[in-house]
Structures are given as structure tokens and as C-alpha cells.
Amino acid sequence: MLLGALLLLGTPLAAQQHQAYFADGYHGGIYGHYPLRWKTRFICNQLEAHPEWRIGLEIEPETWDTVALRTPRDYARFKQLATDPRVEFTNPTYAQPYCYNISGESLIRQFDYGMRKIRSHFPGVEFTTYAVEEPCFTSCLPQILRLFGFRYASLKCPNTCWGGYMAPFGGETVNWIAPDGSSIRAVPRYACEALERGSVWQTTAWGNGTHYLKACARQGITRPIGMCYQDAGWRNGPWIGSGDSIRNHSTYVTWREYFERIAPDSQPEDYRMSQEDVRVSLMWGSQVLQRIAREVRHAENSIVGAEKLCALAALANGADCDRAALDEAWRTLMLAQHHDSWIVPYNGLHGRGTWADHIRRWTAATDSISDGLAAGAMQCIAPAKEEGRWRVRLANTLGEARREVVAVALPEELAFEQVVVKDARGRKVGSTLLRTDEGGRELLFEAEVPPFGYTTYTLAKGRTKVEQTATAAATAEPLVVENDLYRLRIDPARGGVITSLVARRLGNREIVDAASSYALGELRGYFYDERRFRSSTESPAEVVLLCDNDLVKRIRIRGTIASTPFTQTITLRRGDPKIDFDLAIDWRHNVGIGAYRERNAFGRNRRACYDGRYKLNVWFPTTLVAPRLWKDAPFDVCESRLEDTYFSTWDNIKHDILLHWVDLAETDGAGVALLTDHTTSYTWGTDMPLGLTVQYSGAGLWGRDYPIDGPTHLRFALVAHEGRWDEGGVQEENLRWNEPLYAAVGRTFADGEASWLDLAGSGYAVSAAYPEGGSLMLRLYNASGDETPHTIRFGTHFSHIEAVDLRGEPLETPAIQTRGGGTEVELSMPRFGLKTLRLTK
Fold it and tell me: Residue 168 sits in which domain range?
């Protein structure tokens, strides 16, 4: 073997390997980089001047609207070339999202709206291969791509790896397998495709250099392919030369051409990609990215909820849906999910502020439209014939019945001093009326709402418990608060940390590790100008019991971290396994938080912004014994293979991303899940408890300063449970966290309740539901169930049900059973699988 390797190293390149291939193309668009005056004409000219050239296009679909308007002649020329075999559209997503940092449903809409927009300009275009310039990957992509009709994918992104890269695996081609078992043929980042020396943004495949091709030859790859998707703002034609001067005599190919003509006979190795193979890192903990992530998450939740409410209104009485408004709400959300939104938030955009400024406006537009549609849908679900008694309408967008404590702000017009609550059957429901410090009134009661439906509660004048928001003064002694599920002890002397957390449903198990050098709820980080770690335990806190009744316990903690005041509010609700935390830090000035003060960091391999141990974290030491770590991803749950999340260099990035939740669970015991209201990072290792990233301040990518420029605000929750994530219902709690019950108070609601879909016991979740063309589109996701068939019950009669792919093309027609005015259908799909149904009444 050694002799063979030495002989190979001494052999000329042409004798070592077969023909090399190269995938060239352009990346960008009207929101990224696309010079309107000359770019379209330039592409046409270069294709005509170099007949051997091939290009893949990753151009934002909205770009073509502007090109058609501003340069109609160039647009007409390109339209003739769009279906030329030398041109391939390889990323039709609407705004080129990273994929791993947004919801799975958002990812589907990015493809759906993007493909429709491109085809509105170029009707004959086929979408065959997914290929991108940046690390826009996530583990569920094979399933989504196949359901959109794609046949191939590339896992390379050799020339823009500032935000990360894919793990190396395999050789010429692989069979990329998604969590649900579906697969797509792909070219990976080869096992021999190293990170470029002296670079912090390239792999060796970026230019088909000799050292890359020699490495491929040594690995036995006989048809190696390199890649570069040039920024559309660059004035380059063929990237590695043309004619006789093409580097290493490479041949330009489209990705489709490579799969179908060059390597159709390759024997792909199975590649069950872990989400942790997406080795990426953004400026987690910086205030600008934290705000973006919270704004995007809120908009994701609001638009999906609004669509489902429109579906409920359509099911209830055939109410029309304002499709144009929903389309615009999705459009502005998708733009906010653009990868540049997250990696260069401080860059200017169109001369009207930064990306961060636009994201704030875009997500606000999505929220505004969604709120209006939701309010209208709530009114359309079983409206009263005339104005009558005061009622509370509650709508449930999940597929399982819910019993939860709800808090409803009462309008000023409701003049009752005391309020009695009755359910849809006329039964009195226990309630509490809170008088807030601001002079308002909040009604608390425990509601029961059927699955994917609504119920109506009636409000009447009567005697009920009235409580002020603050029921006790600040205490200097440890405060013990308990409800039916938990008992907490909070120590004011140690900054308000939780020194004991007993989970009643786990046999009164103590969750807090009292022997740890960290405390549960402690804020701790390295303040590099002070050259030391600072902790919220250094100063005493004011602890006040704000609310103390049978339904809700709420505690307010006011403390300091490095002389900066913070407020943390903890809420327990009856029957709710989620312990809610609301954290606000009132920064008075910019301070440096991180591993060290970094200067001239543009091209450095080591970066202060990577090491999560030094960022300001809120920590969660637990008594769990040798737990395994699980975390969710779009349409996936990943078991971590990492011993820890510690890394400090670009060439050693580890996946430390928290999308919706991360869970620590013993093999046959208890678990503790952490849920957040935004995509961020976490810290964890065998020598360190779980930590949630709260703050980083200092130098970041491209040497840009990421300062503290205002207050920090975020929400998170803890869930103690039995077994691992699927046994403990972590996914279900995450759904309730992101899709709370919709509540509306008014005098225009009719009595009664109804349910139109029951998924109980299936493990399925409603990913999306919306009216479309006289039918109802329903997308189900197997979030935690098994592959056995499950009976799905609909609360109305459907004359026809068919399963369709994500293009709307029919796949199968399940048999329908009609029972008592409802419809039943038996469905099966693998765990993490998707099924889209078109329902016709």
C-alpha cells in the first residue's frame, strides 16, 4: 500500500486520474448582488462566446420581475436561453434560506413560491438538481426535494464557507438518505475534499486545482467534479478558463449533465446524514441576530396559525380566504429568511437601511397581515346572528385536544366587576380575575378545546376571586412556590437562582444538581475587559410573588449581572409541564462578552465568537445521570454524537444550533427539555451543564463589531419528563409553545364548539392547513409516531381525499369511511415523514 501511494505521488496528473469536471454558475439576486444594468446581458454574451461553458443558476426568483422591467431586451435574450441544456436552475427557493435555521414548513414554502415565480417567467424550466453556493442544507432535504420532483443534489459549497460547510463523506456519488428514509442521489463534499489552507471560506474543490484532483485520484474518484457559484456581482465568465486554457483540461457540465451523462453508472454509498454534519456557525448571541431570529420565529408562527384559522373558518361555513394577503405575508417572511439576513445583518440593502432594518419591516408586515386574517377568521367561525352576550372564542390549531390555563385580557366595554365563566355546555368553570398594575383586567381560567376546532365560553356577571398582580412583598428569604407539577425554591441571596426544582410527576425527583459549581437559572459569562467571569449570583436579587392562585404562579426576579439590571419572570400553570421564563436585561452601555477582545479578525482561523463557554449563558445543571442529548431540526430530531460543543476555530466547527428545543435524557430514566422562542446556540459537555446562549458582544465575521446597543429580551421554557424526547412528549410541548390557543372576546360569537380533525394517538402534527381552489390542503408530519397505520378522523364529510406531492400532483387515493357525518381515513408514514392531502367537500 505504501509503495503504491509513493508511486502514485510521482505519477503525472493526467496518468493518475480520468477527466475532471466543473460546475460553474452564479449566485445572488435583487436582494443579494445582481447588477441590473449589465448582468443579464453579460450572462447571455458569455454563453454565446463560450459554447463549451455551462452554468447553474441560484438567482433569487424575484430578480426576474425587475430584470423584465428594467432591461427588457436582455430579459428577452435570456428567456431564449433559460431552457438551453447548458443552463440549469439549481436553487429555486424564494430567498435562498440556510434551511437549518427555519421551520420545515417555511422551507416548503420557499421552494413552492420560488418555483412558481421562476416558472411564471420561464414556463419550460425543469428543476432537477439542488445545488447552492452557501451551506444551505438540512437533513430533511431529500424528502422535500423528491416531493418537489428533484432527482439529484450537490452537497458541495466550496467557495463561500464563511458561515460553515458540510462534513466530508464518501466519494463520487452518495445515496443521501433523509430521516424519513427517502433518498436522493447526490455528490457529497468528498472525504478527500479538505478545507483550503490559509482560507476561512473555501474548500479545495473551488477551482479544480492540481492538489484537489490528486487527492480525488488517491481516493479512487475517477470522475471528480469541482464547483464555484460566482457572486452575481462579479464580472467573470468561465471561472476556470475557457478554450484550451481551462484549468487541468476540465470539462464544464451542469449538475444534471454530470449525473445523467457523466456518472450515471456510479455505485453510490448510502449516506444517512446527521444534522450535525451541517457544520455551521453564525453570530449566535449577538443582539442583532437574536432580534432577527425572534422576529422570524414569531412571524413563522403567526402566518401558519392564521392559515389554519382560515381553514377552520372555511370548514365551519365555507368562508373565503384572502389568498393574496396570505401570499404577501409569506413573501415578506421568506425575504426575512434570506441567508444574508442572518450572516450580514449590518450590511446595507438598496440604500434603505440594513438587512436588520428590512427584516424588522418584513416580519412586521407578515405579523400584521396574519393578525388581521386571524381576527377575521375568528369572527367567521360560527358567528352570532346578532350581538348578544359576552363570550370568549378559543380556537385550537393543533390536531389534539387541549386542556390549558388561558389568560384573556378583558375589554374596557365589559363592565362586569366580577365575571363568571361557563363552558359550551353551560357548566361553570373556575376562574380568577387579575387586576394588573396598568389598570387592566386579565381573566384566567382552565379551558378545554377540541382538536383542530373551537369552543365558546360565556361570560356573565357574578362572584369570582379577584386578585392583584402582586400578592407579596419582596422577600430576602428563599421563596418556595409549588403547583400540581413542580415545587421551586428560589434564593434571593444568590441572585434569584433556583436551588431546588422538584418534579412531582417524576416521583418527586429533584432536578437541580446542588453539587454543581453552576446554578439553575444563573447568568454567567466572560467579560473580557474585566478579564473575568461575572455571574448573577454575585449580587442579591429582589424576588416577588406576583401571582399566586390555583391556576397560575408567577414570580418576578430583579437582579444584576456585572452591575447591569435584569428581570426574569417565571410562570407555572396548572397542568402545564412547561416552566415559562421571560428574561430581560437592561444594558446601559456596550460591554465586551466572549472569550477575548478580537482585533483584525477578517481572515483568522481562530475567532472569539465561536466558543460558547465564554458567552453569557443561562445555565441548567441537573441531576441527570449520563444523559444523551437530542435536538430538533426541520422535520427531524437528531441524537447528538458530540462529546461537547466546544470549538474556537473555523476549521473545527461543531453543530451547536438550537432550533426549537434541545433535550437531555437518561437512557431509562428522566429527561429535561429546553425550549426557546428563537433559533440560537447552546453549550454542553460532559464537564459542563447545558447552557442557553444569551449574549455575545465583540468582533465577528469579516471583523465586524457586534455590539450591545439596547436591551436583551428572550423567552425559554423547561420541561421535566419521563424517558427520551418522544416518550416524554417534547415535540407536543413544543407545538403548544409555538401555537398557543387563539382567544377572542366579543359579543358576536355563537354558542357551541366543533372539531374537524382528530390526530390523537397517531404522533402526527398538522404542519399546515389552508383553503385552496375550493379544496382544503392539509399537510401532516409524523413528529413522534411509528410507521403503523393510524385512523385519522375528520369532523365533516369529505367526498374525495387524495394524497399529493408538494407540487400538487396526485400520489394515492386512500379509502374513505363515513361515520356519523364525519370521515375516517387510514394513513401511514414513517417517522419524520410528510403527507399532503387534498380534501374536497
Answer: 2-280
